[in-house]
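Task 17 of the worksheet. Students: predict the tertiary structure of the chain below and write it out as structure tokens. Keep your answer in the requested format; marks are given for formatting as well as content.
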Amino acid sequence: MKKQLVMIGLLAAAAMLQAVELVRDGQLLFNGIVTPEKPVPMAALAAKELVYHLKLATGTELPVITEKAVKSGGRYFYLGACRANAGLKPKKAGWNEGTVKISSDRIRIAGNDGSRDVLGITSSGTAFAVYEFLERYLGVRWIWPGKDGEIVPECRNLNLPETTFVFKPVLRSSVWRSSGGKLKQAWASEQARKNFYQNQSLWLFRHRFCCDSRYMNGHAFREYYDRYHKEHPEFFSMLPDGTRRPNKYDWSGGRSPYVSLCVTNQELIRTIVRNWAAGGTSKILNLNENDTAGECCCDACLAADHSSLSAEERRQAAKKLFDQKSARWPYALGSISDRYCQFYLDAQKEADKIDPKHEIAGLIYANYSEPPSSRIKLNSRIQLRFCPPYMYPLTRKKVDEYKRIWGG
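Model answer:
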């Protein structure tokens, strides 16, 4: 027992020696925040955010200085591409990744930082690692946009462990699309509108939503109908009446940029890949369908859905609504996720002949939002935008369905 007590005492003493005292009796024991001479915008924002939250927690506002102003014997935070952070190798970090290294006289935080000054679409590894530090050790939370949603507990005493940890985002790329430019008449004033969307952007950023611009791909085939419909009408959806043309009953009124494709057509796939290869620069093959539901009622597409209903049953159900000029007729086909997933896989196989390391950009959308069947096996080189057909207001039922589809 005596030996056990001695061992426990030694371990406790060792733990105390390894502790880094950050706050004592409400006093912040560090002297400042160090940045490079010319920090990139997101690293500068990381410093600003660290200053702001430390002041709320302790009442002390740390100065932001450069490495030239560091005083011997001082204790500092070092952020971003400082010389002191070279060992963290921030340039080798992945998108939005950052490292925190805590030691007795310095706390070093650095990550992959892009050069753009646009919140949420440039790599922000240093800022995201700062947020991880604030959450993990100071209990900071951001409940909703704006100052009244900020939870920053008062900090009287705080010892940190000497440690190193890496922050890696759960999602490689993530963004919530905002409608900040719309419905201006719904706001009490233009300033109120601007304030809300500025607060919302920062709130989302603090929760590490940031989109890799490589994945900001729009609808890929807007010009295809005008370009190909005379020579290759088979590239486009067969409607329930047997024609291949834009659907005049959809939201666009039948405009050609919104025509949907016959995605099982192999010559179409070869054409898409040839056009991509002719571009010569992109590692991403954009297969985002035009902004409409999948509509093709041809035998090949209906077979590719692996539905439990026959092709004729589904085609007739769609035609009944089509004849009524209902915009909802494509949904009578049921889930067509399998055909679109197979489209991504077929295009990937064709593009592998040119670049076996390329990535696919596709959609989870409209009537191909349901999870695919067990016959389909996607892979990590296929990146899909998640845009299921649920509009505001979000009821409990819609939220549950949204989560179910996400889980699938």
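Marker's comment: Residues 5-17 have pLDDT under 50 and may be disordered. The first strand starts at residue 19 and ends at 24.
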